[in-house]
Amino acid sequence: MVENAPPRLRGRLSLWLAEVRAGVYVGVYGRRVRERIWDEVKVMIEAGNAVIAWSAPTDSGFAFECIGENRREPADFDGLTLVRFKPPPVSTAPTGKSR
């Protein structure tokens, strides 16, 4: 899945994968092809973000990697990879309120 990806990356992904929804690509490939696709995403993502998930012999049955800024991030809990949310960015701009 990609968000805010440049059109050239989306076009490149469409060569290998089916885009089932905007930014959501699916396909069944082995490790080598998956890693090659992910390497291209990492080079071409620019300011966007992406996640790749695949079937794996883990407790959850899958593994995943992320790149780019996103509030969701992988977190390891005793060998089980889950997703946690980063806190929202804190604004340092003055609010205009006087005390």
User: What is the terminal-to-terminal distance?
Assistant: 46 Å
Strand content: 25-35%
Main beta-sheet annotation = 3 strands, antiparallel
What fold name stands as the CATH topology? Alpha-Beta Plaits
Q: How many runs of DSSP E, i.e. beta strands?
A: 7
Number of helices: 2
Classify the helix fraction into a percent range. Answer: 10-25%
CATH architecture: 2-Layer Sandwich
Shape field:
flat
Strand order of the largest sheet: 1-4-5
The CATH class, by name, is Alpha Beta
- Domain module count: 1
What is the rounded Rg? 17 Å
Classification by helices and strands: alpha+beta
Residue ranges: pLDDT <50 for 5 or more in a row? none
Overall pLDDT score: 89
H/E element sequence: EHEEHEEEE
